[in-house]
Design brief:
Blueprint lengths: L19 E6 L16 E3 L15 E10 L3 H9 L18 H6 L5 E10 L10 E6 L11 E12 L6 H19 L45
Bound molecules: riboflavin (RBF) and magnesium ion.
Magnesium ion binds next to loops.
Length: 229
């Protein structure tokens, strides 16, 4: 695992063709993200019209920032009625956290988060359909299907691979998370108006902050524009 670098891309910031924009409503995937891997993923529709580049891009792991907009009360209630809110596994159904009343006063999922994502066929699972799955680097206690997610994809980490075991797949994904955090925790990779501490690399696993946060210098206005929902 340590055979690959823990930081990718130049310090100055993303290189062409990045940043690449992608957005849409969070849809349910194959339901394995949380249950089997302990790595919840939010899937976005792979839409040839909205994201023409996706058909030609290399299958593999990318990283960047996600902006989440909380589902509006009506949408949250509707999603809940359809049983699409809650854990992937269906075992821990959320009954209260995203109820209609709660959603109104709890913009719990709104905000900017570092993310790592997989675009491809997941050879380990022999998928025949290409998916775009985003793992947000923040320990949310529940899913939020239906919420609108906007992505600024800033860089590429590695090609998609097959693995001999689930453990090997999970270990590689965990290292992808380290790469994403460390790569994003540089001023040139952090949006203007945000702090590099948001990417979390200053925090050693389970330890104290080691470096002072810097201010971001990356300009990506569309990431913060209001969505016409
Ligand atoms: N699946 C693979 O078969 N090969 C991979 O190299 C691979 N890399 C991934 C990297 C990240 C950051 C994430 C979030 C997922 C990756 N997956 C990969 C997909 C994984 O199999 C998938 O999240 C689960 O199957 C849940 O749908
Ligand atoms: Mg998923």
């Amino acid at each position: 695992m340590s055979s690959r670098p823990s930081i990718v891309g130049p310090d100055a910031g993303p290189e062409q063709p990045f940043p690449v924009k992608m957005e849409g409503p969070i849809i349910s995937g194959f339901g394995r993200g949380s249950r089997e891997l302990g790595i919840p993923t939010a899937n976005l529709p792979v839409d040839a019209e909205a994201t023409p580049w996706i058909a030609d891009c290399v299958s593999g792991v990318y990283f960047g920032w996600a902006v989440l907009e909380a589902a509006r009360p009506g949408e949250a209630a509707a999603a809940e009625a359809k049983g699409t809110l809650g854990d992937d596994s269906g075992e821990k159904k959320i009954t209260s956290k995203l109820s209609t009343e709660n959603t109104e006063r709890t913009p719990a999922v709104a905000g900017l988060y570092p993310m790592v994502m997989s675009i491809g066929y997941n050879p380990f699972y022999h998928n025949t359909k290409r998916t775009a799955e985003v793992h947000i680097l923040y320990p949310f206690a529940y899913d939020f299907y239906g919420a609108h997610m906007r992505l600024a994809i800033l860089g590429y980490i590695r090609p998609e691979q097959n693995y001999d075991s689930l453990d090997a797949l999970v270990a590689d994904i965990q290292f992808d998370c380290v790469v994403a955090r460390q790569s994003l925790a540089r001023a040139g990779w952090t949006p203007v108006g945000q702090s590099t501490a948001l990417a979390g690399a200053n925090k050693k696993e389970g330890g104290a902050e080691t470096e002072a946060a810097q201010a971001g210098t990356l300009v990506i206005p569309w990431l913060f524009a209001q969505t016409q929902l």
